[in-house]
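Retro notes, item 3 of 5
We never archived the inputs for the glutamine complex last cycle. Fixing that now. Sequence and ligand:
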Amino acid sequence: MPSLSSRTDIFTDSVIRRMTRISDLYGAINLSQGFPDFAPPKAITDRLAEIAEAGPHQYAITFGAQNFREALAQKHEHFSGMKVDPDKEVVVTCGSTEAMMASMMSVVNPGDKVIVFSPFYENYGADSILSGAEPVYVPLIPPAFDFDPNAIEEGFKRGAKAIVICNPSNPCGKVFTREELITIGELAIKYDAWVITDEVYEHILYAPNKHVYMATLPGMRERTITCNSLSKTYSITGWRLGYTIAPYEVTERIKKVHDFLTVGASAPMMEAATVGLQFGDDYYRDLQLHYTHMKEVFTSGLSDIGVPFTDPQGAYYVLMDISEFGYKNDYEFCVDLARKVGVAAVPGSSFFKEPVNNYVRLHFAKQDETLLEALDRLADMRTKMLQ
Ligand code: GLN
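Structure as it came back at the time:
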């Protein structure tokens, strides 16, 4: 066989997505890959039904349908206070996955370094490698997931051209404070680097935490590329609607990358989701209340079971500490958990650069009955994992 690319040699498939397949194999309750099992807002699905008849069914403009970009810009301005030009500063992508990939490819050259916090959402490692960059990891130190600004500065001194920030953070649930973001921003300015943010959980926060948009901080707009998506905010992860908001010159580059990578996001889905972008404030308030409720149900259940876990400030994951089970390999723990207990989780090692193997990630974006059934199964895990 002719040889395969060395670029794709050095990372695995996504363990998050692999765990969904393992979950399906054992008929487990899937708390691994983060997606809801409740319906998206009815106004959006009703609109989709209309569109099935009325269209559009053909390509939209490559960087996103005009009305969708305009609605996106307005929604973003409403929450961030930042005026966005829908023609010059927005690219609609196939999920924030493509948004992040296209952003990296637009600002990073092969051989460049990119700072990534650890633990990190696993795509960032592969994104850096695919764009030819070398990730430089800066630890977020448990239990509070604080960081040492000197470690970031060290990364910039070593020549990092960009830093990736997931805020609110997957998998650790950290919500970066304004002061922390200013500290990072000042370093990015000092070393003239790009800041690429992943803000897909911007509306999934637990009181009293507040989301601060990096691009709105002093001096940051011109060096920040914001990646986001509609997946989590409107419970439509399968629709694959993401976007970037970035300065004009960067947006022009992202448009080119995006055009040749995927041509465009799905036209009917953009049209249907436009309704969601026009929802009033009560929608976002209810979303937060709903997630606060799901977090309560799940974390109080875990507390009753008596297993240690991280309590998130935002996003919808907990890292459960599995030290007591004595597994050397957290992936094996997750396969056993799916097979013997009937609950699927993601091994923590897929998020940490450091040799951490005592955490597994569980998500709680699920209906009460799903969460209660999962907790019921987890209540027996000490016995079942020994069998
Ligand atoms: N963000 C979700 C997770 O971390 C799912 C991401 C994906 O599979 N695209 O599980």
